[in-house]
Amino acid sequence: MKYKSLQIVATLSYGGGRGFYEIAPITMSYERLEHKKLFFRDCRDKGLIKRYDHSKDLLVFLNTEEGNIWFDENSRNFVW
Questions:
Q1: Hey, what's the torsion of the CAs at 75, 4, 46, 16, to 10 degrees?
Q2: Could you please report the per-residue DSSP string of 44-58?
Q3: pTM of the model
Q4: Which of 9, 34, 60, 68 is deepest in the core (most CB within 10 A)?
Q5: 22: which strand partners?
Q6: Bridge pairing between strands 76-77 and 19-27
Q7: How far apart are CA 70 and CA 59, in angstroms?
Q8: Contact at 8 Å (CB) between 49 and 58?
Q9: pLDDT value at position 79?
Q10: Are residues 2 and 68 in contact, defined by beta-carbon separation less than 8 angstroms?
Q11: Nearest Cα to 21, choosing from 44, 41, 39?
Q12: 65-77 pLDDT, tens digit each
């Protein structure tokens, strides 16, 4: 696995069920990486959430081998 832990640190919801989770990745060597965003739409399409505030299944999935790979493919960097 690439990450020791993927944790939700914040959520932003804006009208009509749109928004994203801010995810904090921690490597296997306990190095904290830059936070990334994961859109609700992508999680919903994968069947991991129905409502943004029900994220238990999402967290369990993200912290698996398959979830780590899916996170890398679907997460986006914050643009400032």
A1: -60
A2: HHTTS-SSTT--HHH
A3: 0.92
A4: 68
A5: 10, 37
A6: unpaired
A7: 12
A8: yes
A9: 87
A10: yes
A11: 39
A12: 999 999 999 999 9
